[in-house]
Amino acid sequence: MLEVNPIPAEGLTIADAARRTGVSAHTLRYYERAGLVVTRVDRTSGGRRRYRQLDLDWIKICTKLRSTGMPIKMIRRYAELVSAGQGNEPERLALLEEHRLEVLARLAELRENLELIDRKIGVYRGRLEAGDADGLWAPAEPLPGSG
To answer: Global pTM?
Structure first.
C-alpha cells in the first residue's frame, strides 16, 4: 500500500511516530527499553530518536499483538526471533499458533458472554413492550443457587 504521507529520508521524530502509530511517545520508549523492537531505532547526532517505516510497521504489529492479549514476554521472544533473521520460522510459527489458540478461546468466551447480554436485552425489551415496567426490578430468571 502506498503511504499517503511518506516518511522523510531523515526519519520521523518520536512525536510524529507516536501520531502515526497511535501510541504515546512513552509507549514507543517503553517498547525500545523492553526489547520489543526488531531493529535499533536510528538517532540523530544529538541522540534524538528517528523512526523509519520499518520501525512504524513493527510498532503496529506489536500493538496489534498486545491488543489481542499477547504478553510482553511473548512479544519480546517474537521480536528476538524476527531480529535473528531467517532460520527460526518454525519457532515463530509455533509462538503465533499458540497465541492464536488463546485468542480463539477468549473469543469463544466473549461470544458466550454476548449471548447472555443479548438474552437479558430480549427479556427487558419484552417486559417493556408488555408494559411490565415493574418487572424490570426483578431478576429476569432465577439467580443461580436461589431455586
So the answer is: 0.76
- Per the domain annotation, does 117 fall within a domain? yes
What DSSP element (H or E) covers 42?
strand 42-43
Concatenated DSSP letters of 47-82: S-EEB-HHHHHHHHHHHHHHHTT--HHHHHHHHHHH
Calculate what percentage of the chain has a pLDDT beyond 70: 87
Task: Give the confidence band of 65 by pLDDT, cuts at 50, 70, 90.
Answer: very high
Q: Where are the alpha helices (DSSP H) in the chain?
A: 14-21, 25-33, 53-67, 72-84, 89-129
* Number of domains composing the chain: 2
Say how far apart CA 90 and CA 94 lie, in whole Å.
6
